[in-house]
Amino acid sequence: MHNLAIALKGKGYEVSGSDDEIFEPSRSRLMQHGLLPSATGWDVGKIHEGLDAVIVGMHARADNPELLKARQLNLKIYSYPEYLYAQSKDKQRVAVAGSHGKTTVTAMVMHVLRFNGIDFDYMAGAQVEGFDTMVRLSDDAKIAVFEGDEYPSSTLDPRPKFHLYHPHIALITGIAWDHINVFPTFDTYVEQFRLFTELIEPGGKLLYYADDPVLECIIKNTDRKDIRKHAYFEHLHYIRDGKTILVTEQNESVEVPFFGCHNMQNVSAALQICRELEITDRQFYEAIGSFRGAARRLQTLAQSKHTHIFLDFAHSPSKVLATVNAVKHQYPSRMLVACLELHTFSSLSENFLGQYSGTMSGADIALIYYNPETIQHKKLAFFKPEVVYRAFGTSNVEVFTDSELLLQKIKTMDLHDKNLLIMTSGNFNGIEFAKMDWIT
Fold first, then answer.
1. How far, in Å, CA of 429 to CA of 373, rounded?
2. Within 10 Å of residue 221's Cβ, how many Cβ atoms?
3. Is the dihedral of CA 55, 425, 317, 109 positive or negative?
4. Distance of alpha carbon 370 from alpha carbon 348, whole angstroms
């Protein structure tokens, strides 16, 4: 939401906002742009008939006093994705959906377009190198690239965000169950992606990963004759001296700074989107060699000749499995220490934990952390560490409920000839791994 506020101020709008908590980096960035509220909390005085629009984020509940007043005054109220669509109705819209990889694919497309000097609007789910904000809205750009999240749009609109974009170019990276607080069954979750295919603009294009059996079933049963469908595969590549080399259709070699089979799927997805946007393969490959990724997507915290420390956003089972296997495959001669925080509603639900079975088997040492207070805050049923051991199903797992004990374990570990992979969508109860002085 703070990125949207900054983007709209940059477009020349007068912007105000409220929240009951404002954390970093949002606080500093809002202050930098003169948008930081003078006080936290809700202020109904900010809601008046002179407003052109009120944009509601997921954090605002139905009984929010500002929202109640906006409804009383009959003001135009948008959810976040609804407003993005309203600002891009006359543009060629791209929506990247899927349970995993959508942030990276979106970031890759953004990088290639920017590298080639093409004007475009965008919304990405993480900070992308070379971009000041995660949102841009303009009057002049003819293209809008949006990351398509399946989470609900707002407290007033339970539709998944990606249902509101109505793309001309839609891409689905793959489907693996997540967000069980919203989608209590796998079938309910899958249905959201089927509905997404029904919301593509007539004459549009649907791109999808060919080796996902759930996606294959959706495509097989999609009876739309007014859109084109195209499957893509993992990009051909090889590893040489620890570097990943893409092999193009022209049999040329392109070294890239990212790795892993999941990223080979991502780069292939980005290539297909860019082709639809009339970017040539040569333009794409010239750009992709300098792509450094999105924040917390196999982000390097430190490295030496014998150790590499990564921070990654992986939290769902499919993401954890892909990320662990990617690092192990890229550095087969090094031991892998994988550290995962269970933080999301799904991962802290005992009924869902079994989905993690075998996901950490590729690590030599697997450290799992969860905070009992987070379970309580999410109003979930408490479970003991033994439940986590059984759920992951491998003997390499050690479970922690105290972040200080976990940190002590990592700090006293000899990381020589080992890689450390830290995976979380949270912050390990305040541990700032990105700011630590790693000695490798």
1. 10
2. 9
3. positive
4. 8
- Chain-centroid distance of CA 56 in Å reads 20
Q: What is the largest CA-CA distance in the chain?
A: 65
**315 SS3 class:** coil
**According to DSSP H, which parts of 253-381 are helical?**
261-276, 281-288, 317-330, 372-377
DSSP 168-237: SEEEE-------TTT--SHHHHHHHHHHHHHTSPTT-EEEEETT-HHHHHHHHT---SSSEEEEE-PPPE
Q: What distance in Å separates the CA atoms of residue 235 and residue 284, rounded to the nearest whole number?
A: 13
- pTM equals 0.89
pLDDT range class, residue 427, cuts 50, 70, 90: confident
DSSP 288: H
Residue range 357-403, pLDDT digits in tens = 999 999 999 999 999 999 998 899 999 999 999 999 999 999 999 99
State the amino acid at position 294 in one-letter form. A
Q: Read off the DSSP letter of residue 139.
A: S
Q: Show the tokens assigned to 144.
A: 């809008």
Residue 178: which pLDDT band, with cuts at 50, 70 and 90? confident
Where do the domains of the chain lie, and which CATH numbers do they carry?
2-75 (3.40.50), 82-288 (3.40.1190.10), 299-435 (3.90.190.20)
Cα(234)–Cα(322) distance, integer angstroms? 13
Written as one letter, the residue type at 355 is Q
